[in-house]
Amino acid sequence: MATTATSARHRGQAIEAATATWLSERGLELVTRNHHAKGGEIDLIMRDGDCLVFVEVRHRRDAAYGHPLETVTPAKQKRIVKAARFYLHSQRLSCACRFDVVGVTGTAPDLVFDWIRAAFDAY
């Protein structure tokens, strides 16, 4: 029997995969998923033309306790930026970048996606 942590991990992976597909249908191209770096992880790295997009995916079954977009705190943003810098350095990339957040509510197959392009800046 799967543990709660394992179930949550699988559910998270399924939500990220659905989000990657949803974004691809809107013109972005998937580069990689779940990029781990010192101090953080980037859920999705995608291309939007010449721009590299670091995507944070947040999910809640419903918004009864707040929308998932509200969970991307300044501390979380800082970890994402740090991981993005590590990725750019390790890949020897110098290109335009942005940080998007996708809030997902519902349960599969009835998911609602709220996409904020350029949700925050690197600081």
UniProtKB/TrEMBL annotation:
SUPFAM superfamilies: Restriction endonuclease-like. Pfam families: UPF0102. CDD domains: PoNe_Nuclease. HAMAP family: UPF0102. Belongs to the UPF0102 family. This is UPF0102 protein GCM10009038_32340. It comes from Salinicola rhizosphaerae.
